[in-house]
Each structure stands twice: as structure tokens, then as C-alpha cells.
Amino acid sequence: MSKRKLARLLQTPAVLLLLVWMLVPLSMTLYFSFIRYVLNNLRRPEWTTPALSNWRGFGNYEFVLDAKDFWFAVQNSLFIVGSILFLTVTLGVLIAILINRAFPGRGIVRVLLISPFFVMPAVNAVLWINMILDPVLGLQGIAIGGINDLITLLKDAPLVGWFFSLWPTLEPISFRATQTSAYAVIIMVTWQWTPFAVLIFMTSLQSEDQQQKEAAVLDGAGAWSQFRFLTLPHLGRPIAIVVMIQAIFHLSLYAEIEIVSRGNGNKNLPYLIGEFANNNIGAASATGIFAVILANIVAIFLLRMIGKTLMD
Amino acid sequence: MGRIVLENVTKKFGDLEVIPPLNLTIEDGEFVVFVGPSGCGKSTLLRLIAGLEEVTSGRILIDGEDVTNIPPSKRGLAMVFQTYALYPHMSVRKNIAFPLRMAGMNEAEQNTRIEAAATALNLTDYLDRKPGQLSGGQRQRVAIGRAIVRDPTAFLFDEPLSNLDAALRVGMRLEISEMHKKLKTTMIYVTHDQVEAMTMADKIVVLQSGRVEQVGSPLDLYREPRNAFVAGFIGSPKMNFIDGEKAGTLGAHTIGVRPEHVQICPKGEGDVWQGKVGVAEHLGSDTFIHVHGIDGCDPMTVRAGGEVKINHGDTVYLSAQMDQIHKFDSEGHRVS
């Protein structure tokens, strides 16, 4: 047996395991997406067991495409993921640069910065929506109430009173409402995932070549040019990694959406799958296949974009 | 123009004084080499001139203008680093263009200068490559190209050849020397390699723990070292130092004689020392013989012809050219 064959043979178990691990769920989803398969139907009990005799062709796909929430869910998935990516990467880069310099208490600051990442998603959502974003009892409600009280007080003040009496009374935002629930999810997930970006960018910044920076200083580059032409390209790869990992995670957001508004005004594809899966496994599977396609498009698109703009 | 004057320049890192008050004048168009053992402050001195470190006290003047508090980019100096410090994400062309782009120069003028630099440095074929795709020598050329295009008042080189292999180092040494002959711009070159210092410099500055030990042309330093440190540092192989009785008879605490000024001679014909051969290094053109058992100097290095037949353990008799003997007092200063 040649060395090469032996190596292949020894690799086989691992490769087979990975193949089974990935292919079995994917093929089952594919199979279910082409048959009629529901959990409960009194009139057609034969649909409650998966079988080829229940073949529906592309019927499930047509059903999903015609469902009223599908395109909204696709659009909303992209909106949520895009916003979170933009915010976490921007904040991550800025914070990483800020704490890259030595200052007293840096160790503690770093630990505090990382800590949101250890909070469970559901706990994170409950904390934010009830304690911070709640229009009455949350920090938001208290803060806006405070500002309103202050303005009322200033309206009676001499000299400047006329100015403050022009001000409107501020209304707290209800983040459980249809129009705003997506923003609530974006805020809480950004809070939770910025530390991840900071952590990765921070390690990368520490490996930045200091002589390059000195050369740039002598070449006449100011702080902004150094950031734009040296630091940002240096961070290109870590940014790509952060974007890639986060895109995968956030395309499957569920807990936050469920807790904030139970999908009211704010659905993404996983949430839609969850709704279908209450009864219609076939439609849920078809939506799952759409989600896989969407994830691939997003990944390829994002990687291309980052590669082009930063690596040059 | 590029006349650089250091007036009572000092540098402290915390309480540690790296450069005690130092005065030095570098004339316009000179090729000056700072040489010394590692940790002697030569790189720090270069960084002070570049403005990458702030002086603790004293003044730095370039062409009569006080630049002590002027930021590095405004001093008109270009620096070539030991690690090349190329920008890894930019092509060679963009690397060379970077200082011009930062200066806001127009595209056409940029291109003319880049083409000129690339031609001078044989980089024309590599302009669109990334630094990662180049060899060490080519990277060093790009770093030099980035310095040339700026048309600086002076070039600063910080051990630029240390990361290259021996053969390339000799080649680049010649190229930098030729570049200096052509451009006639002031160059300050830092190295720990005395061969580089001797071959390239118009003027060598020998440094030890931040102090200037001697300033002079390579041959001045070779012929008349001011003290034992300079004598030992300049010249390869190192000068032999002999103390004790022999030195006393010549009225010195220590005497020094270079390996090339010691000869092997037959017994009784003016021999001064007698010893046993340890290792003989045959280089082809020369043989360096290390002789053991000589009072006050062990081993003594002797430079002999390439074809000399000598073996380990042979007894040899040595004589020295008396007019080439350097005398030093107990503190290492030269006695004439």
C-alpha cells in the first residue's frame, strides 16, 4: 500500500463522520421539503407520516413564496444582520483601538468589556427589553421621565423659561411595537456581540508592526492616514472572520425575536420556520432550504466585498 | 543641502541615561557611519535625528534650522529600517508612492518619480507585486526606493543589511555606496558590522555606551585609534593586545598590534615571541593563525599568506613591525 493510500485510508473515518453529520440533516430537510408532511391533520391523516407517496414537488416552495410573511422575513433577516454587522465591526474597531494603548486599569476594563459575551441570549433579551428599553419601568422610561420633569421645571425659570416652553414633551419609545421591535433586537445583539469583535481586533492590533508605523510617520502620514492605510488593512482578515462568524450566527437569531415581540412586526427566516413547524413540517423545510441559500449568498457577497475594499 | 548638527544632545529613558551630552557635526553630502557594539546607543541616536524619539535636552539642527521640536515628517529625512517596514497590503508601486501621496503630489509627477526610482533600483518588473512576493534584497530595494522618491535632505539607514545573507549584503553594500556617489546626499548609516563601516563611510563615528569614542575617516581610525576600544573595534581580525613586561619595555601599559603586522620568522632572526599554533583558519587568500602560550596575550592572531604550511601544535616564532605598534596607558588611552 502506498503512503498516500494509507494516509487517505486513515483520514476516511473523520471525513465520513463530517459528511454524515452535514449531509444527513441537509438531505432530510430536502426530502421533507418535497413532500406533504404535517404534524396534525384530521381529514388527511396519511400526511402526518413522511412518505414518498405524499410527494408534492415544488408545492411547498410555492406555498412558502406565497406566504404573506416570507419576503418580509427575508428582507428583515438581511436588515437585522446587516445592521448588527455594521455596528459591531465599527464599535469593535473603535473600542479595540481605544484600549490597545496602555493605561491604568486596562486589565479590568478588558474583562468588563468581554463580559456581555457570557450572557445567554434569552437572558440578554429579557434584561434589555424589561430593564433598559421598557418605556415605563426601564432605564429608557426613567430617563425620558426625568428629562420631561426637568423641562417642566425649567419652563417656569426666569429668563430662559420662554425657550424651554417651546420644547415638546418627549415620548418614550415602545420597543415591543411593530415598527420598533427590530431595532430592539439590533441594539441588544450589538451589545452582546461587540465584545467578540473587540476581542478579535484587539489581539490582531497587538501583532501590528510598529516599524511600519514609524516608517509611515516619517513618510508624512497623520493619525488618520495611518489608520486608513495601515491599521484598517491589517484588520482586514480579522474583520472578515468576525463578519463571517457573526453573519452565520445572526441569520439564525431566534430567542431575542421571540422575547421582544413574538415575531410581531419582526420576523426573520428562522422565526418563520419556527412558525411553520408548529404544524407544517414540509413548508418549514422548504423555508429552511431558502435560509441555506440566503446564508450562502450573504457569506459570498460579504467576503467578496471585504476582500475588495480592505485587502488592496 | 543636508548639514546635521547635534548640540549637547542627551537622551534618558526614565532614570537611565542612554546618551550623555553628545556633540556631532555631519557635513552636507557626507556618508557617516555610526558603529559600535549592540546597546551602544547608535540606533537611539539615529532615531533622535529622525524625530522618532524626543531628545531629553540639547538641540538638533538641520541646515542651520532647529528641528528639535519639529515632527519627524517635517524634517525632510527618509529612513530605511532593518525590517524594511514595507506596507504589506500595498503593491511595490503603492509603497513607493506612499510618501508622495501623503505629500499630496499630483499623479503625473508621482509616476515620473516612481519610474525613475524603479529604474535606478532594478524594480521595474516588480512594481505590481506585493512585498510578500519579493526576496529580502528586493524588499530592501523597495524600502530604499520609498526613501529616494522623497528627495530627502538626508537618508537614515538603521542596520539595513542585517537581515540579508552574506552574499547579498556585499552586493547591497556596493549599491548603497554607488547610490551615494550618484546622489551626493547626506547619509547616516547605523551598523554593528565594522566591515560595512570601513568600506562605506567617509566618516566613522565609533560609539560606546552613548559616548562618541572617536570620529574620523576609516583609515584614520585604523592607523591612529584614540583608545584601546576603537583599536579593538576597527579592523578584522581584532587587534592583539599585549600587556605586562613586553609593554613595559616600550613605555606603555598595554601595546596593540594588528594581526597583519605580525609575521612568522625563523628562530633568531628578530623574533619577539614564541608560541604554539592552536587553530589555523585557511581562507585561501589569507591564513589566520591563533598562537597560544604568549605572555600577556593569549591567543595572538597572526595573518599569514594563503599558502603557508602550518599545523596544529607547531612551534612558531613571531616578530612585529615595530612602527605599527600602538601604545596605550592603563586607562586605555593612546600614548604617542
From TrEMBL, chain A:
Q: Which residues form the ABC transmembrane type-1 domain?
A: 74-302
Please name the InterPro entries in this protein's record.
MetI-like, MetI-like_sf
Return the SUPFAM superfamilies for the record. MetI-like
Q: What is its main location?
A: membrane
**Transmembrane ranges?**
12-34, 78-99, 111-133, 182-203, 235-255, 281-303
The alphabetized list of GO BP terms reads:
transmembrane transport
Name of protein: Sorbitol/mannitol transport system permease protein
Q: Which organism is it from?
A: Cohaesibacter marisflavi
TrEMBL record, chain B:
Q: Which SUPFAM superfamilies does the entry link to?
A: MOP-like (SSF50331), P-loop containing nucleoside triphosphate hydrolases (SSF52540)
MF terms from GO for this chain are: ABC-type maltose transporter activity; ATP binding; ATP hydrolysis activity
Q: How does it sit in the membrane?
A: Peripheral membrane protein
Annotated compartments:
Cell inner membrane
**A Pfam family in this protein?**
ABC_tran
Q: Where is the ABC transporter domain?
A: 4-234
Keywords assigned by UniProt, alphabetized:
ATP-binding, Nucleotide-binding, Transport
**GO terms for CC?**
ATP-binding cassette (ABC) transporter complex, substrate-binding subunit-containing; maltose transport complex
Looking at the keywords, is S-adenosyl-L-methionine present? Answer: no
Q: Which domain of life is it from?
A: Bacteria
Record Gene3D superfamilies: 2.40.50.100, Nucleic acid-binding proteins, P-loop containing nucleotide triphosphate hydrolases
Q: Which family does it belong to?
A: Belongs to the ABC transporter superfamily.
Give the NCBIfam families listed for this entry.
PRK11650.1
- Recorded protein name is Sorbitol ABC transporter ATP-binding protein/mannitol ABC transporter ATP-binding protein
User: What species is given as this protein's source?
Assistant: Cohaesibacter marisflavi
